[in-house]
Design brief:
The chain has 371 residues and is of the alpha/beta class. The chain has helices spanning 31-40, 52-61, 77-85, 105-118, 159-171, 181-188, 253-265, 271-274, 287-300, 323-333, 352-355; strands at 2-8, 25-26, 29-30, 45-50, 68-72, 92-97, 120-126, 133-135, 138-141, 149-158, 194-196, 214-227, 231-234, 237-240, 244-245, 303-313, 341-346, 359-370. Strand 16, helix 10 (323-333) and strand 17 form a beta-alpha-beta unit.
Length: 371
């Protein structure tokens, strides 16, 4: 029998929330339920260690999961785990931070398999940065990087062995000295076995961690022909045309659609807010320079483009010979690889204002990621 203990007795103070962070919504569902749903597929029972003030609400959230129940936690994480450990019935126990909602069934299965084979299984990742030991702000030792791992959860053990480790630590008054089960197990039972985790299996600790890792934005812009010039500008490329596009700036309808998509994904105002057509500073402005300013706004939000997809509807002029240069310009402006910037052009089959050659419409979609 497999038992899962989910640690959910925190107050969310480091995130600056007025409620337990595992009750905050993430992608339309409370953080806690992301973890519960992952373990529900692999564990025979789930015990959520929680605070008294959260118990009623958590019980209501657990209603669709008949194998899940609550137990009151303690003042520290290890006290909470101990109280839950005394309640579970499984031979194998997996302990997991409820604030790690991105745990996968693959990770959970790997943890169980490690316990079955070695008696323990601790989710961990090899360190990718140099790790140092310090004292009073100074480096006193640099452990070999190949020996350094960062520990995640779940952490799995045979219930009897883990309970024995807890009992010994409690008897010695040292329970508060440990921050997780792997260190406690190592101190009283044996060196626990590691298995490879996943960088996406991060713990939500601060408010910014609750921002979606990726955001999608959509932008659309239209400009009419009628300006007295023999070219149009798309993605900074001059393209011969019977007339130019009417606009306060240079009329780069493609860049305008991309800017609106970027601003939309970042939750900011549209381009009319930042570059109003009533402001003479932007008369005839180079839209690629305006795009640079939008990129500055995006980066200030802690975001960066991951890819961009653009569709241009234009009956005239013929755009095919210029697509590649447009794509390169756009990718460079967004600091993307050219393969992450796509531009497609098509006609409107003679229908509507585009089909009649009166204007051009551009649709743009971007994906932003957290820096």
């Amino acid at each position: 029998m497999i038992s899962a203990i989910l640690c959910a007795a925190g107050a969310g103070s480091r995130a600056g929330f007025k409620e337990n962070k595992v009750l905050k919504e993430l992608n339309g569902m409370p953080v806690l339920l992301h973890s519960v749903s992952a373990f529900a597929a692999e564990a025979d029972e789930i015990v959520v260690a929680c605070r008294k003030e959260d118990e009623e609400r958590i019980r209501s959230l657990l209603a669709p999961y008949p194998a899940a129940r609550t137990v009151l936690g303690g003042e520290t994480r290890e006290e909470s785990v101990l109280y839950a450990l005394r309640e579970v019935r499984g031979d194998i126990v997996l302990v997991h931070d409820a604030a790690r909602p991105f745990v996968t069934r693959e990770i959970i299965r790997a943890c169980i398999e490690s316990v079955e084979k070695y008696g323990s299984g601790v989710c961990a990742l090899p360190a990718t940065d140099t790790t140092v030991l310090t004292r009073e702000g100074c480096i006193i030792a640099v452990p070999p990087r190949e020996m350094v791992y960062t520990v995640q959860t779940p952490q799995g053990f045979m219930r009897g062995e883990l309970l024995r480790a807890f009992s010994l630590a409690e008897a010695q008054g040292k329970l508060k000295d440990f921050t997780d089960e792997s260190s406690l197990y190592a101190a009283y039972i044996a060196p626990p076995r590691l298995f490879t985790g996943d960088r996406r299996n991060k713990k939500l600790t601060f408010a910014e961690d609750f921002m979606p890792a990726e955001r999608v934005g959509f932008g659309i812009d239209t400009h009419a022909f009628g300006k007295e010039q023999d070219y149009i500008v798309l993605a900074g490329v001059k393209i011969p045309a019977a007339s130019g596009l009417v606009a306060h700036s240079d009329g780069d309808v493609l860049v305008h659609a991309v800017m609106d998509a970027l601003l939309s994904a970042a939750g900011l105002f549209d381009i009319g807010h930042y570059f109003p057509d009533t402001d003479e500073r932007f008369a005839g402005a180079d839209s690629m320079e305006l795009l640079s300013e939008v990129m500055r706004l995006i980066k200030a939000q802690g975001l960066a483009p991951q890819n961009v997809s653009v569709s241009v509807l234009a009956e005239r002029p013929r755009l095919a010979p210029y697509i590649e240069k447009m794509r390169q310009n756009l990718a460079a402006a967004l600091t993307l690889s050219p393969t992450a910037a796509a531009i497609a052009a098509g006609t409107n089959e003679k229908l509507g204002y585009v089909g009649e050659g009166k204007g051009i419409t551009v649709y743009a979609t971007v994906l932003l990621k957290k820096l």
